[in-house]
Amino acid sequence: MAELGTFALLVGLAAAAWSVGAAAFGSRRGEQRWVRSAEAGVHGALLSLTVAAVVLWTLLLTRDFSVRYVAEYTDQHLSIPLTISAFWAGQSGSLLFWAWMLAGAAALTTVRYRHRHRELMPVVVLVLALLLVAFTGLVAFTSNPFGRLGFTPTDGAGLNPMLQNWGMIYHPPATFLGYVGFSVPFAFAVAALATGRLDATWVRTVRPWVVVSWVLLGTGVVLGARWAYTELGWGGYWAWDPVENVSLLPWLTATAYLHTAVLQERRGKLPVWNLTLTFATFAMTVFGTFLVRSGVASSVHAFAESDAGILLLGLIVAVIVAGVVLITWRLPLLKDTAAPIGGLSRETLIVATNAVLMVFALAILWGTLFPVITSQVQGREVTVGAAFFDLVTVPVTLALLVLFGLAPAVAWRHARTPELRHRLMLPAGAALAIGLATLLLDGGRNPLTVLTLSLSASALLAILLEFHRGLRGRGLGGLPEHLPRIVELFRRDPRRYGGAVVHLGMVVLIVGVALDVTYRSDERHTMTVGEAVEVGRYELTFEDLTSEVTQSRMSLAATLGIARSGGSDAGSLRTERYLDVNQEDPRTAVGVRSLVREDVYVILQEVDIDTETATFSIHLHPGVLWLWLGSGLLVLGGLLALVPRCHEEGEVQRTRPGATTVNAAGLAGGNDQEVR
Amino acid sequence: MMLSVVAAGLLLVVVVLLILRPLLAPDDAERPRGPQDTQPPPRNVADDPLEVAIAQRRARMAERDEGRR
Questions:
Q1: Three-class SS of residue A109?
Q2: Residue A385 DSSP code
Q3: Is residue A557 within a helix (H) or strand (E), and if so which, with residue range?
Q4: What global pTM score does this model have?
Q5: Using beta carbons and an 8 Å cutoff, which residues of A are at the interface with B?
Q6: Average pLDDT over residues A196-219
Q7: What ipTM goes with this model?
């Protein structure tokens, strides 16, 4: 069976290699049938890698411990969902998953665009097939998951206990899919440069790919944060770990791209910058893969050092060199002929957003790379701690909040002062009111938090007012009384209002993080069963201590009842210390009770079973629920922005390539009309 | 083992056929053109008041941009 997996990998590699050759030949000779054959090669690669994936899952589920990968990542006691997720638990499996998803994305691209973009497709297929060759080659020759041990152990080593979490099922696939999705915009950017078709067509074509990948990567990052929070037991959700950082980098550059792409679509502005961001985003995804797989960074996520690292480094260099050479070559065609951006306008704010995001991304990149460079060049270990990243994050967050607040009020091209003043009056009032209120409540101890909350209130109101104006402007009534009709707003302009939901999500997320970072508390209590302690506004009662021994695990679990200071019941939580048969050290399962104001987060530290005494670390995390809610809105907004636009009466839509969508009502002279 | 060999053979045959099929079929340039390939006939912009309005507005915007520059 394992041999079938290896064979399927090699057939997939051969099919991808054929695609490279056929696409190059077909493109050079202008023969469509060779391009079609190249596309079929991509489909063949997808079929082969699907067979390889099915074989690996079969080996995992049948517990064929003669296969090294199966023996390393499963055992007899692993549950079926976690066994399925063991596919991407190790380096070789995760690389196979990556290559498989890449083949899927490439095949979908060929099916979707073969008729629409005949000039671009040969190069698009060529680039995607080249990437497929690189990743399938990596799997086949450096990280084959189908390698056999030479003997059959009676049981496997089992999945690392830290990976035995529901997050293992969703977090890696979401992150990988996000990474893989950015390959398609990269391929289109290369094709646009190679063919000289540098109008906004490629930008429009890749938009859904960028948005979907952005949503998936964002979901992956958030799920990872949630996983860290509930599983790792250190009371946090973000540690500025190198691998966390590198997953954030392509998300940031893609966010920047999604903003400036609008400028190219609407006004033909910043074509070079958009190409640069597309190359940078893809390079960052490969950089993330490199960092995890090269062994150069020490991280809870990193795999052991392997040959894959040096090959991925080569791919990063190739992407950067290709980007520089192609963009330089096509510079004469990339002249920005539209009027320069100036004054206070939506365009200026988009450029400012890009600047802020780039400063943030570069700071994170530097903070991540510095220890790696120091270690490789000078041979000494240096750590860049959270203090450095926090130093950058605070001003970036404040700047973004200002931009979130200004964006809905500022018109395209040129903001008129009286209109701007009118639109900003309420948000400014909200900022002042919330600022004063939080200042009084806080007592002036945390001025940055007060400023953050004040700017958040302003941004929140500005975004809600945008919905209100949208409803009024379309004759759908105002916000409070016609909230259900907001669906109509999304149907008519999903992109704009989806974006507003994303901004709303970011503001809610920032509020959650600001509250948690400033007002979290941590106490340690030793209690016997039946005893109660007061923590903040809660009374926690140690209700029960139970022990359980199964074939695979020994555990001690404590249950704590939670009551609010007024006496009302706020539920209970369970925290556990356990030892798996295949592990040497006991581990802790955190108990979390999420309430609107805060999370009660308890870690069972020590237990004396004879005296029924236990020591707990009890954290109160205010605002964490808002963090997850904001993340959810972020994802929802991204998805909403993908919904096809429903055209209003009086609109004209042409369906040929490069079509223009015009809102007739907007021609009356308003500042917010869409004229693309 | 037998099943693996059969599956491997099938996979190889299917992939080879997939790749070769387009090469054996007539080129796209020779195949009958379907509705997806037909371009709409050129439209007379002057016939459509909305198009005229758009064109005028574009011209105004271009003039304004030019002036600002």
A1: helix
A2: -
A3: strand A553-564
A4: 0.85
A5: 1, 3-4, 7-8, 11, 14-15, 18, 22, 31-34, 36-37, 39-41, 43-44, 47-48, 51, 115, 338-340, 342, 413, 652, 654, 656, 660, 662, 664, 667, 675
A6: 91
A7: 0.72
